[in-house]
Amino acid sequence: MIYSNKSRPSARIERWVLRLQPYEFTVKYCPGPQNVADSLSRLTQERPTEHEHVAEEYIRYVAENVAPLALSIQEIVEASAEDEEIAMLRKCVQTNDWTAAEPVYRAVRNELSVLGKLVLRGTQLVIPKTVRKQVLDLAQEGHLGIVKTKQRLHTKVRWPGIDQQVEKRCKTCHRCQLVGKTFPPEPIKRMELTTQPWQDLAAELMVPLPTADYLLVVVDYYSRFFEVAVTKSVTSSKMISCLETMFATHGFPLSIKTDNGTQFASDEFETYLRENNIKHITSTPLWPQAIGEVER
Fold first, then answer.
1. Which of 15, 23, 199, 294 is the most exposed place for a label (fewest CB within 10 A)?
2. Contact 202, 257 (CB under 8 A)
């Protein structure tokens, strides 16, 4: 169910839910054998006056809220009244005769509705030709680029060729080119290969096992030899104790690489490494590939 608390629908389904909010209805489950699959076969020719009134109020509400903030709804009404294309659309919607309409409008004829002199496509206002340039100017304020400008327009307005006009406007705008200028990525700095065993290490904690034990895994980057310590505590003191046991066997390394866990980022752990002349290297947050050997 799209209305349950645990539901995580897609963005398209969420937009359907938002469009249904002005209506009051009850959702009832109907088993498949008792539910006619073709919903169009259950539509009636006559609709109650009350439903027509609710639909008209909803269309009026949408029209008033989708108009650009810098343009009054009255300006759009006056421009729509003088626009031949909008007049043709109003006639097509009212007479249901789409022979004179352009193919782009015939494809979405079931989404079009009329409110006075205005024409809406779903929750988007069809803008007449005389004010389209002004709407484009308003949407381009801030010079956010092609994608963001399209998103800003599609939330409220629509007309044929709107995407192409936005692309042409942004590609010929000097400020948009400056803001949208791409910079080459920083060059990758590879880690120098170690030349002797037990010089450069990497350490990582494994998630708790069913026995509530943690595993401290330490890998040597030269030989891929690894040491494992089993512990029930993940404090800095316990990490130091586990490492001291390993260092007593193999000696002190030159460097050790860890993630940014609290037990590895504490002052106590840093002090221990500094006193033993061990360089501490931390990985980039949310980038486990930086210590890929021990992560693997």
1. 23
2. yes
CA distances from 227 to 6, 195, 253 (A): 43, 20, 14
pTM: 0.44
Structure-token match 């221990």, residue found: 272
Residues 235/267, Cβ–Cβ less than 8 Å? no
Please list the residue range(s) of the chain that carry CATH number 3.30.420.10: 200-295
d(CA 61, CA 3): 23
Q: What is the mean pLDDT of residues 129-155?
A: 86
No. of helices (H) and no. of strands (E), the chain = 13, 9
- 202 phi, psi to nearest 5 deg: -135, 135
User: Residue 260 to residues 149, 179, 190, 201: CA-CA distances in angstroms?
Assistant: 39, 34, 20, 15
Among 126, 110, 44, smallest CA distance to 77 is for 126
Highest mean pLDDT among 150-154, 170-174, 214-218: 214-218
Class of 200-295 in CATH:
alpha beta
Distance CA 243, CA 238 (A): 9
Q: Is 83 exposed, middle or buried (0-12, 13-18, 19+ CB in 10 A)?
A: buried
Q: For residues 222 and 198, what is the distance between their CA atoms, to the nearest angstrom?
A: 7
Residue 81 CB neighbour total at 10 angstroms? 14
- Name the one residue in this structure whose structure tokens are 């006619």: 36
